[in-house]
Amino acid sequence: MSWCPNQDPIGKSKQTIGAVQASTILPNPNKPLLLCLSHLRWNFVYQRPQHLMSRFAKHYEVLFFEEPCASQSASARLAVKMTEEGVRVLTPYIPKADLEANRAVKIQRELLDRYLSLTQVDPVLWYYTPMSMAFTDHVRASLIVYDCMDELSAFRGAPPQLLEYEKRLLDRADLVFTGGYSLYDAKRKHHANTHPFPSSVDIAHFKAARRVTGQAEDQAAISGPRLGFYGVIDERLDLELIDAVAAARPEWQIIMIGPVAKINPDELPQRPNIHYLGPKVYDELPQYLGGWDVALMPFAINEATRYISPTKTPEYLAGGRPVVSTPIRDVVNSYGDTGLVHIASDSASFIQAVETALASMQQPEQVAHMADLILMGMSWDDTVLRMGNIMEKTIDTAQSQALEYFPGQYAERPTMSSRV
C-alpha cells in the first residue's frame, strides 16, 4: 500500500470519480499519452498534481497511476475510473497477502504492462514518486519528466530506498521540474535540464472568498477574529507554536481545516479557541477562507519543510487575506517583501505579525488590490504552457541528436507542438 497513509477521499468537489464505460476504458489512440505516477491519490487533497494533470488532459490522454490498495480478492486487478476533468485514474488492487509478501512491484509491473500494451503508444512518463521506478524502468517513453514537488526523502515514513530510486530516476529523466526554488537549487546539481516551477494558483477560484456573505455551517458559530489554516495536518506543522498563540490570545479563534496524516491526533493542541473542522473539498475552500481575518502558515522549521513552497500562499492572497508564516525559505524569498505575507520565527513575533495583519484588514479593498498586484500573471494555465514549451524543446533536441546518429529513423515521431 501507499507509504503516504491516511489519504481518505477529499478531492475537488463532492462529485465522486466514476467508473469508466467499456467504450472509453482505453485512451484515444489518436492523442498522445501521458502516464503520471503519483504517491498522492487523485481524490486526496487537490493540489499540484491534480492542477497540472487536469490541464494537460486537454492535450493528452492522461493516465494517473496510483499506489496500490489492499484487496480481499484472490487476484489482482487494475481499476480504471474517470475524473470530471477527463483524467483516467488507474488504481491497482492487490491481494493483501501479496502486499505483505513484497510481491507488489512485480504485480504492478504486470498490470501496467498489460494496460499499456493495449494503447500501443509510447507515453510521456511523468513521475511524482521515484518509487515507481521499481516497476516502470523498462517502459519505452517519448519523454521522461520528474516533477519534484517535495523532498520526499525528508518526510516521515519515507521508504529507505527512495533516495536510490531518485538517483536512478534523475539518471534516466530527460527533464526535471521542481516545485520551488529551494528544490531547484538542490536538484540542478544532479540534472542539467532542471527548471523551477513554484506553486501557482487558480485566481478566479479563490477570489470567490472576497465575495462570501454567508458562513460555512460549521464555521458560522465561531466568533471572530478568525485565523485559519487549510492543508494536511502533519509533521510539517509547528504544533507548539499553534498552542502558544492560542494560549496567549484566547480571544482569537484558530481554525484548522484538513486531514490529519502521519501524526497521532492525540498530539494536536486542544484549547477552546482551536477548532479542527476536518477535511474540506477544494471547491469549499473559498467559502471558509472568506470567513477568516488572517490566513496562517505555522510550519515547523525542520528537514520536512526545508524545501517546501506552499501552494496555499498564493491561494490565501487570491482570497484577499493577509498571511502570517514562519520563515519558510521559498515563502520569505518570494513573498517576504510584499507587505501582505508577514514572517515570524517564534510565538511572540507570530502574535505581533497577526496583530499587524488584523490591522491591515481594516482596509480589505487595499489588501485585495495589493494581492492582485503580487499575483499578476500567475496561473496554473500559464505554468502548463511554459512546461509544455520546455517539453517540446527537449523532445526536439533529442530528435535532432537522434537523427544525426540514426538518419531517417525518427522522422515520424510526433512533436510537442501538436500537444500543448
The major sheet is characterized as: 10 strands, mixed
Q: N-to-C terminal Cα separation, in Å?
A: 34 Å
Helix segment tally? 15
Fraction of helical residues = 25-40%
Q: Number of DSSP strands?
A: 16
Radius of gyration: 22 Å
Q: Tell me, rounded to a whole number, the average pLDDT.
A: 90
Low-confidence stretches: 1-5, 409-420
Shape: globular
The share of residues in extended strands comes to 15-25%
Structural category? alpha/beta
SSE layout and pairings?
Elements (H helix, E strand, L loop, with lengths): L17 E2 L13 E5 L10 H9 L4 E5 L3 E3 L5 E6 L5 E8 H5 L3 H16 L4 E4 L5 H4 L6 E6 L13 H11 L2 E4 L2 H7 L6 E3 L6 H5 L9 H4 L5 E5 L8 H10 L4 E5 L16 E5 L6 H5 L4 E4 L14 H7 L4 E3 L3 H7 L5 E3 L3 H14 L3 H12 L4 H26 L15
Parallel strand pairs: 2-3, 2-7, 3-6, 4-6, 7-8, 8-9, 9-10, 11-12, 11-14, 12-13, 14-15, 15-16
Antiparallel strand pairs: 1-5, 5-6
Helix pairs in contact: 1-15, 9-13
